[in-house]
Specification:
7 strands; 2 domains; globular; 7-stranded mixed beta sheet; methyltransferase activity; Class I SAM-dependent methyltransferase; Rossmann fold
Amino acid sequence: MKKIASLIFMVILPVFIFYAWRYASRSHEIPCPFWLRWFVELDNPFTKANRANTIIQQSNIHPGMHVIDFGCGPGRLTIPLAERVGSHGKAIGVDIQSEMLQRAESKALNKDLKNIEFIQGKIGKGKLQLAPCERAVLVTVLGEIPDRDAALKEIYDTLKPGGILTVTEVIFDPHFQSRKTVLTLANKVGFREKEFVGNRAAFSLLLEKPVGDDR
């Protein structure tokens, strides 16, 4: 009987934590803790949607571009982005956690990457003062931000006209945002849907800032 009770507890506890974290993040900024960095550094074995190479290919990122990785964490995607854009491009990683950024900077140093920069700051506060870019990525991060409207507006303003924001969501993430939710929020600030890749449970939504919009 005790074994059954223990098994039930082991099943219920993660589910409780999942939904408690999801609910709390609606009003508080609760990013993935640093001690779980090993988890976010791994490519998801169950889906290709949030793998670095997949996102880079889908986003049509090529040498010479300037790209910003919002909510970069330990640099799982930022490092491959810097390698992809090459010496004539630049990759910038933005995160609110200094420990995550230190981890990412260590990786960049080990690879001797000169075209990469990391900035500590909150998305949506209007204080990042980032240079215009052609591409931006937001991978399983949108749901962690209490003011998603302000965050998307800041990203929109940072992109050059014709620039693309790739929002990637995977249902295993506690902060998962549906395609409908992402698109509704994105349309409010001016984005247009360019392409949808994946399915309802794991997808990338490519959002374009219209050409001619110089905001």
